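tool_log.txt
---
The assistant was asked to compare two proteins side by side. It first ran the structure predictor on the initial sequence, then on the second. Raw inputs and outputs are pasted verbatim so the downstream comparison step can read them without reformatting.
(1)
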Amino acid sequence: MAIPDQSTPAGPDAAVAGAGSAVAPDGSASDATPAARPGRGIGATEVGLILGTAAIHSGGWIAAEVAVGTIAPLTLAALRFVAAGTILLVIARWRGEALGTDDWKSLLVVSLIGVALAHALFYTGLQLAPAADGVVLSTALTPALAVVLAIPLLGERVLRRGIVGLGASAVGVSLVVLDAGTDAGGGDRLLGDALVIAGAVATALYTVIGRMAMRSGSPLGVVASTTLIGGLALVPFAIVESAGGVALDWSWEVWFAFLYLTLPSAGISAVMYYTLIRLSGAARASLVAYLTPILVLAWSATVMGVPLSAPRVAGAVLAIVGVRLILSGTRPPDGAR
């Protein structure tokens, strides 16, 4: 998700789509996120990868909203990430990627925070608030919080435009939350938004911890490991949550949503995203983060029938502007390579 980071998508797929670039500023993983070559135009393949990754990732928000209407949130997260982690692990091993297991303590912490905790909060929040709220809140907050945490923990510097971006993101979040307060079901929606915000905090922590500690594996390898470990960590809680058993007599819509979350949204989008990074660099790959809120709002309006209120649309615009300013307004600490 983004950013996983946060030149990557955030939210229900942050751990899948975002962990790689969260690791990228560190040592070995930095080789996997080259800068785009100066003066080189963007090709049709790159455009296709940007649009395709954003479309698949945005669909994950809608699929999650559909799935949590039937599947309990912790159960959904456990099933989804055990399945997705197994798939990604097979892909990573087939590609010969390092899984990051040399630093198993950091791997465990990142898995518990970025996958288990963050997605338990996201999915529970999506039971109460629409995906349109979730994507705006996570897009605005995750990179902003990651930058705020990176200042004391990593020694990163924030330029003036980065500060403006933090402000724009904060205003965008405020508009969405205030809009929730005026909703007829405002109490539940506000609680859902609060849980999504808590999930964004966990994802931001995951981003910074990953950049501090995850130097022993490749981006895709770390994603595979953390996804599977996080899913396994959720299994005991899912068992308690579904004490009466998990009924698999889901409707075809729920089955489609679950399979979409497991295969395209996790495996395919992750491979597409890392291919895009190799071809274009992290800067151009960050376009995925800008397109995702727009596409989720469109999906929400057409598929879920969620009205596009003016505050929600304005919040999305400010979130996108804020992310752009934050990404261009931060610098590594002096002396960092």
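(2)
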Amino acid sequence: MAEIFWLAHGLPEPERHHVQELARSYAEEVVDEEWPLMEQGQASPRGWILIDDIRATLQGYEPHTVAEEGLVLGSPNAACPDQRPPVPSRSPHRAGRQESFKYTQSG
């Protein structure tokens, strides 16, 4: 999320603010809702909605300069296929809010 937040610095307004707010909302959702739900073997649908909104915003952005074109081509969006990534599962070893994850392939 940090990379997406910083990527947005190169976008013009209103896209810059919109992408940064989506990234911030996603991070808050994961920490406050997703991680506690994952302890119970559940997931937050709002997290997927937010990440889909980030992807759609970046995919829908039309660059107007060569510099903006480079941002879009080099963005994490290019690495976001239409299928969802593996779902992280909690490691039994963790300290405070710093989480350790191992990735497992989902459905």
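---
observation on (2): Confidence is low (pLDDT under 50) at residues 75-107. The chain is about 50% helix and 5% strand.
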